[in-house]
Amino acid sequence: MNSVLALARPELLALEPYRHAAWLPSVTRLHANENPWADPDDPTGPPLNRYPEPLSEELRAALARLYGLAPAAVLPGRGSDEGIDLLVRAFCRAGQDRVLICPPTFGMYRVAAEIQGAGIVEVPLDAGFGLDAAAVRAACSPAVKLVFLCSPNNPTGNSLATSALAGLLDSLAGRAIVVVDEAYAEFAPGRGLLDRLPRYPELVLLRTLSKAHGLAGARCGAVLADPAIIELLARLIHPYALPSPTIDAALAALAPERLARSAARTGRIIAERERLAAALAGLGAVQRVWPSAANFLLVEFREAGAALAAALRAGLLLRDFSREPRLAGCIRITVGAPADNDRLLAALGELR
Ligand SMILES: Cc1ncc(COP(=O)(O)O)c(C=O)c1O
After folding, report:
1. Protein residue with its CA nearest to atom 12 in ligand 1
2. How far, in Å, from the CA of 28 to the mean position of ligand 1?
3. Three-state DSSP class for 90?
4. How far apart are CA 294 and CA 158, in angstroms?
5. Domains of the chain (ranges plus CATH)?
6. Is the peptide bond preceding residue 152 cis, with omega within 30 degrees of 0?
7. Which of 83, 90, 128, 302 has the most CB within a 10 Å radius?
8. Would you state the torsion angle of the CA atoms of residues 163, 103, 181, 230, taken in this order, to the nearest 10 degrees?
9. Is any ligand 1 atom within 6 A of the Cβ of residue 208?
């Protein structure tokens, strides 16, 4: 057995996965209880009366090319949210195992753990929202099976230092799975931890097409990991997890000309982020703009309630974090199109 599987729920290693209908696209399908007729009003694309390919090998190969990995190291799913859920289900026994999180961070790690009945160990980020690797290491008892880190982190926007992440991976080898959620990696310099995957069997990365690739409505993300972990998660994922229109939309978005367009849009978002950050920092209502390597800014206001209300009067919704621990006065602002950002600046500029 691959040693990394020693951390998985033992009963799952013996699980007989659901056996979906065979996938032989060239043969007429009288084996899956589908309807023989597609409706002519259905959108173009693969006929929707048929189930999709259970795990699209074409999409898996396209995502593997995007991230520079072997297809066996990639599992496509319904957003990275599905990856979070699969990981918790694969590694945590209810009432026994634990998930370690570093708040303030993305809320789904906690929710997925609570749904599974896993305990939660909290090791807060440090005063500058950096990773306290020594504290994480010290809190990793044998019950902690998964450590969720997020870089760039939501909602703080900062990237975690690669040296701290590498040191943590070295010291947790064989002890826990370290999941680094890189949903916003395309907005940060470098390739995230992609190049470290072959070296660390316990490292799992989460990536998504929802953010820089502009496909939030399609729901497509990927778990990137040692093939033994991918194979385990593939046995747990629901059959036909990705709908045909999602597979189609993702394949189209991964074509070279579309990738070039989304890279150009990412560049514009980064430039707009810096412009917005500088302009916000000059407003009287703003106490502090945290540095961001993502497509949003965490901004501390003198009066968060007044800022939220002013934005709403201008027809703009912001995300209130001001009542969360360590985030007093803070609002998360997604970098929008330049005209929307200007409207926001005008609305907030009227506050004192
Ligand atoms: C850090 C982080 N991870 C994962 C997700 C979920 O993304 P997806 O659309 O891929 O499910 C989000 C969504 O906002 C996020 O902020």
Report:
1. 183
2. 38
3. helix
4. 7
5. 46-254 (3.40.640.10), 258-349 (3.90.1150.10)
6. yes
7. 83
8. 100
9. yes
